[in-house]
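Q: I'm writing up a methods section and want to include an example of the input and output format. Could you take the sequence below and give the corresponding predicted structure tokens, formatted cleanly so I can copy it straight into the document?
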Amino acid sequence: MLDSQPELFSEFAQVHEAYKQNETKYQQKFNDIGARVLALIQEWEKRLCLYSEKGTNAKYSANLAEKFWAEIRARFSHIDLIGCE
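A: Here is the clean output for your methods example:
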């Protein structure tokens, strides 16, 4: 996922760090870039979980999604604040 859009994730990482230091100043930029990042993350989550939901391993799909988001949150701790003001 990160390799598919390295420029976007690099830009978001920089804004994310700046946002952690000064939420008020970087709120708009964080939300703008974050919305694009969030859409991409959700697309990859669907790709990851789509086939496991249809198969005999459907009960593991929720756990897989949780682990996926845990990895995202480990890298971007404030990802859940996108769109919050």
